[in-house]
Amino acid sequence: MLRHVIYYSLSFVLLTLVPGCQQKQQTYPYLIKIDGCTDCSVTLRGLPPSYNTLDTAQRQAGQLVLSGTIAQPGVYYVFGHKPTDKNFGIGATIYLPADSVQLTVLPKEQEKRTFYYVYQRLGLGSYLRNAVIFSTSPQQKELERYLYLNDSLWNKFFVDKSLVTAKLVQTYDSGNRALVEQWSDSARRFEGRFPKYMAQSSVLFAKQYPHSDLTAYALLDNAKITNVQPVLRPYYRALPDSLKQSYYGKLLAKEFGEVQE
Questions:
Q1: Closest C-alpha among 256, 190, 184, 192 to residue 219
Q2: H or E segment and range at residue 138
Q3: How far apart are the first and last CA of the chain?
Q4: What pLDDT digit, counting tens, does each position of 114-139 carry?
Q5: Where are the alpha helices (DSSP H) in 57-176?
Q6: Strands 98-105 vs 28-35: parallel, antiparallel or unpaired
Q7: Span 200-247, pLDDT tens digits
Q8: Residue 118 DSSP label
Q9: What pTM, to 2 d.p., does this model score?
Q10: Hey, which of 23, 228, 233, 239 would disulfide with 199, CB 3.0 to 4.6 Å?
Q11: Which domain of life is it from (predicted)?
């Protein structure tokens, strides 16, 4: 009798353990359609720190389509280029999972050129310079808000830099050597302020969205720069525990050398 009791007890334990062993990691589906660039080569890339390629777009009914599953919700990147045009490029930042993402590439004459210093003078791109995104993900709007803040601070840096440079040029005719040296020193040191300008986009977003899933991402975006970590650290520490335990929260903890309980 005792042998049968032990047998059935062990059988019960094994039966309860088997489903747990067979459980698969949760995955999340995505569907991304790209219009306006059928001759493009487009890929979906993953989360930091690897940014590995997850998917390559396939042509379906006149569209480029990316579809599959991801294991971790978060911010992903769509990159595209034309083999026949080295000056063309798509760079779209999206939040996944999403039931449907529609990315429409704009014709050359409709490209957004909001900031002179970013687009014209430096020849660099910015968020959605040549594309428009529609997404069913509710987090996409908050992500776009952060990216627009990035654009604004980026532009402000170059505007302020041009003002410092203009002031330096004005002092050359003053005959005041001390003043010329003062403004020359200011112009030389101004380049080093760029990380602090960009960190303000993280700070502003954290103030506006202290409980957003994307706040930890926004802080992480600038946390690798050592001289801005003191500015960002208080906002990391103010995060709810749920965000500290999130994917981006754990990466932030490593950047700041914080030991999570």
A1: 256
A2: none
A3: 48
A4: 444 444 444 444 556 677 899 999 99
A5: 139-171
A6: parallel
A7: 999 999 999 999 989 999 999 999 888 899 999 999 999 999 999 999
A8: I
A9: 0.79
A10: 228
A11: Bacteria
